[in-house]
Inverse folding.
C-alpha cells in the first residue's frame, strides 16, 4: 500500500490494533531489536528471563529500570494520539500492546490490553500481595514480606496472564480490521495474531518501518508510524 493510503473506518465494525516497540520510538523509547535496541545491547538470558529473575532479581530489575525512568518522563507521539482518536471516533477499537510503557493510556486510549504487563507496577517475587502502582526505579524489597520486588511485566519463559490471552483471542476472532504497528512480529503469542485474524476474515494491514515477511494477502505500509497513522484513517 502507498504511504498515502487511507482506511475508511466506517467500513469496519470491530477494529483491533497490535502495537510493538516501534510505535514508541518517536517518544524516545528504544526498540528491542535492531540498532540501539535493548536486546542488541543487553543479553536476554542474563536479564530478561524467568531463570534470570530467580538467579539475580536485582539484575533483571536494573535491566528494565531505564524503561520506567524513560516512560515516566516522555510523552505519547502522533501515532499513539492517532489511535486514541480512532477509539474516540470508533469506540469498538481495541489495542493489544506488547509495550510496557503505558503511552497508549497516556495518549487517551481506554481499550488497551497490555500483553506483557506494565513497567508502572511492581510485584513481590513471592507474590504475597497484588501488584501495585510504583514510581521507583531503584531496586527495593517488598514492605510486607521483605522479598525482592519485580516489575509487573512478562519475562521470557513466563506465561502471559490467561485472561489476557482469552480476551485477545476473542477480539481477534471477531476483528474485521486488524492493524499491526511497529512490531518485528517474532515474539509469541503476538507473532501468531496475524494468521488468527486473517483466518477470521479480517482485513490485515501492517504499518512498520521495515518490510516484514507475512506472505500473501497481507497489506503493508512501510514507514514511520508517527508519520503514517495521523493521516491513515478516513472518518467521512
Ligand atoms: N515506526 C514504525 N515501525 C518502527 C519504527 C517507527 N518509527 N521504529 C522501528 N520500527 C519497527 C522496527 O523496524 C521493528 O520491526 O518496529 C519493530 C520493533 O521490533 P522489536 O524491537 O522487536 O519490538 P517488538 O516487536 O515490540 O518486540 C516484541 O519482544 O523483547 C520482547 O517483550 C519484548 O514486547 C517485546 C517483544
Amino acid at each position: 500500500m502507498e504511504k498515502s493510503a487511507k482506511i475508511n473506518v466506517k467500513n469496519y465494525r470491530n477494529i483491533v490494533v497490535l502495537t510493538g516497540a516501534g510505535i514508541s520510538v518517536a517518544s524516545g523509547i528504544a526498540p528491542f531489536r535492531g540498532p540501539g535496541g535493548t536486546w542488541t545491547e543487553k543479553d536476554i538470558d542474563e536479564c530478561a528471563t524467568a531463570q534470570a529473575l530467580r538467579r539475580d532479581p536485582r539484575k533483571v530489575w536494573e535491566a528494565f529500570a531505564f524503561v520506567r525512568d524513560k516512560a515516566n518522563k516522555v510523552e505519547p507521539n502522533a501515532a499513539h494520539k492517532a489511535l486514541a482518536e480512532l477509539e474516540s471516533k470508533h469506540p469498538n477499537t481495541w489495542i493489544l500492546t506488547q509495550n510496557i510503557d503505558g503511552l497508549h493510556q497516556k495518549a487517551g486510549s481506554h481499550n488497551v490490553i497490555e500483553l506483557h504487563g506494565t513497567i508502572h507496577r511492581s510485584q513481590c517475587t513471592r507474590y504475597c500481595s497484588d501488584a501495585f502502582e510504583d514510581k521507583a526505579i531503584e531496586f527495593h524489597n517488598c514492605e510486607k514480606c521483605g522479598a525482592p520486588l519485580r516489575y509487573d511485566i512478562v519475562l521470557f519463559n513466563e506465561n502471559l496472564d490467561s485472561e489476557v490471552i482469552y480476551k485477545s483471542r476473542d477480539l481477534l476472532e471477531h476483528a474485521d480490521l486488524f492493524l499491526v504497528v511497529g512490531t518485528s512480529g517474532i515474539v509469541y503469542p503476538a507473532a501468531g495474531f496475524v494468521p488468527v485474524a486473517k483466518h477470521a476474515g479480517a482485513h490485515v494491514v501492517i504499518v512498520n518501518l521495515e518490510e516484514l515477511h507475512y506472505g500473501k494477502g497481507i497489506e503493508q505500509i512501510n514507514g514511520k508510524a508517527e508519520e503514517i497513522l495521523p493521516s491513515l484513517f478516513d472518518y467521512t
Notes: Residues 144 and 179 are 43 Å apart (CA to CA). Residues 20-22, 25-26, 31-34, 37, 39, 98, 116, 182-184, 187, 208-210, 224-226 surround adenosine-5-diphosphoribose (CB under 6 Å). The longest strand covers residues 117-124. The chain has a mean pLDDT of 95.
